[in-house]
Amino acid sequence: MKRILIIEDELPLREAFALLLKAEGYEVEVAENGRVGLDKVKVFQPDVVLLDLLMPIMNGMDFLKAEAKRRRQKAYSYKTLVLSNLSDPVTREDVKDYRIAGVAMKADLSPAELALAVKKLVNS
Amino acid sequence: MKLRLWSETSWRGTWAKAKAGAKVRTHAFVVLLVFLATLAAFVYYANSVRNSVHKDVDSAFQQQLRVLSTGTTSRLQLYEGILRGGAGLFFVNKTLTQANWTSYFRPYDIQSQFPDVEGIAFDRYLTTNEVSAFLQSIHEQGQPSFTITPPGERAVYVPTTYMAKYSSPNDKASGYDGYTDPVRKAAMLEAATSGNPTMSGQTRLRSAPNTPTFIMYLPVYADSSSLDTPTERQAATYGFVSVAVNIHDFVTRLLKQNPNKNFGLKWYDAQSPRNNQLVYKSRNFDELAKESDSVIQTIPFTTYQHNWKVTAVVGPGVVPTAERERPFTTLAWGVLASTALASVIWVLISSREFLLNRQKQLEVQTAKDDLLSLASHQLRTPATVVKQYVGMLLQGYGGKLTRGQTSMLKHAYDSNERQLQIINQLLYVARLDAGRIILHKEVIDIGNLLKQVCDEQRIEASQRKQKLVCEIPEHELAAEVDPQYFHMVLENLVNNAVKYTPDKGTITVRARPSQDEMLVTVTDTGIGIDEDRQEMIFDKFTRLDNELAANTSGSGIGLYLTNQIVSLHGGYIEVKSRPGHGSSFTVHLPINESGEGIEEISS
Prior knowledge:
The complex is a heterodimer of chains A (about 120) and B (about 600).
Chain A: E1 3-7, H1 11-23, E2 27-31, H2 34-44, E3 48-51, H3 60-72, E4 79-84, H4 88-95, E5 102-105, H5 111-123
Parallel strand pairs in A: 1-2, 1-3, 3-4, 4-5
Helix pairs in contact in A: 2-3
Chain B: H1 10-92, H2 98-105, H3 110-113, E1 117-124, E2 126-127, H4 131-140, E3 156-157, E4 160-165, H5 182-194, E5 198-199, E6 203-204, E7 212-221, H6 230-235, E8 237-246, H7 247-257, E9 263-269, E10 277-281, H8 285-290, E11 295-303, E12 306-314, H9 321-394, H10 403-433, E13 442-445, H11 446-463, E14 467-471, E15 478-481, H12 483-499, E16 506-514, E17 517-524, H13 558-568, E18 572-578, E19 582-590
Parallel strand pairs in B: 14-16
Antiparallel strand pairs in B: 1-4, 1-8, 2-3, 5-7, 6-7, 7-8, 9-10, 9-12, 11-12, 13-15, 16-17, 17-19, 18-19
């Protein structure tokens, strides 16, 4: 079973995503910020990480920076889908350097579209 | 109809201008203060330079006076020496002859050594009862025609007895009684009673009546007389050895010793009956006295018991021209330097002000941007949560739904979608109004973009049984645009056409290049727009009231945003519409290389 890690501070949204993806048949783990996300990544070994950007304690950008080092050492490989509600241009410009799999505006994605996006990532 | 970028409201500008005006006034005051202070310093300096020029003129004046005074004294001492020599003859023998006199002075070479000397004489001092004996002895000495002139009875006669004459060699002076001339009499009396050489004031010799002359007398006393008191000395007076000096030649000679064309003088006899009679005047005196920075001074002085007065003038010419002009050049440089300094300070203050303003603007802008980002995040997040849960319910993740439930959830979902769209548009407008929309332009095929938009809109059009025709040429329609924003433009225009065209209507999308423009036209067979409202549709939050609007969701922002983005691309939107027949929106997009009006709005 493919593993999905959801890093999202907004509790109802985190649970919605978890509910949706579990229903789609994935093994799902959640983290409420980047710091927790970093720990869970090591233990949980996800195939896909859904990453929010604006979060307390450690935001998505800092998570990407911290993971960039391990990614270079090829300690693991998972695909990152950045899901944010920040204005598009800002997000795109900022995460460009981190070789992420995709960027999407949460407000634009319906549950079906999200499920489809994750499915594509898992299968690629 | 061309529509350009909506301009700033003016009240904010007016307020900023008023505030800037007060600041400019303060700066102008500071700059003026610096200017005046610098100028004042230079004026003070120029004045001190001017004073030093004055001082130089003054010291040149004193120097000239010293030279004049020394020259006069030493010259007169020479004459005194000559007189004492002549007087010495009478210590040896009281009875001399004219021949003795002439031959005694011959070695002095008076004519060449003392050209200012008119003559050297011995004048015998006689009381009335001595006259006949004197005349007899003179006649016996070989001057039988000797007489005393002017004639007449007098208590005292002082006729010129021996004469060494130089200026005019005739013998008119011989026998002339100088005692009849009050000027000479005064000097003789003074000499006789004091026993000292004494100078007369200005007088005229009979031989040279036009030449001002002074005569210096040295008394000769009778042998073995007591000479202790003035009375005794007067009683013992035997005669006077005298030298007559042409004043003009005397002064000219003095001045020649230290020639200076910037020095002039007037020489007065301070003791003459007519007080302060002018006896000598330099030719350049009046000219020098007229000059503004000249120094004029009158000094009384006494030579051999006679009082004179000299008015001397030194013109500014003693100081070199450059030196004299220094105060003015200093002042001129001062004005220049003050202006330069004031300008530099003005520029410095202004540029600093400009930088501060710019920094402030940037800070405000950054704060605005941060707020915008946060607001967008905060507004979207709850709506997103609604979207996810309602979406999941609709898609059956919560279990099977009845028809009624599905319909209700669909309304909720659509409404939530609208809310999210409005949030997005509002954020774009906010960014646009803050001038923060940055176009990332690339050359793309507009045709491809249009096909994509048509495909996206076809679903809604087909739901309304509309015909959506996309007439796009096969060849590439290259234009430089920001793909994301230009997609928004096209999507908005086509979607508007779909929304505002009744069911079964036709929407036609065409694209073609024309000269230096790319034209994209969206034509519909919709309700149309009244001519007087055509301009309004691009205003913010304008929604036209019509039968279709009531059934259509819209924020009134779409066309405003569309028009602004086209403007940012340097283009404009043309509207043609006939109410009841339909509308046509044409985007005119410049494609020329220079890209006139196409500029990125940078932060």
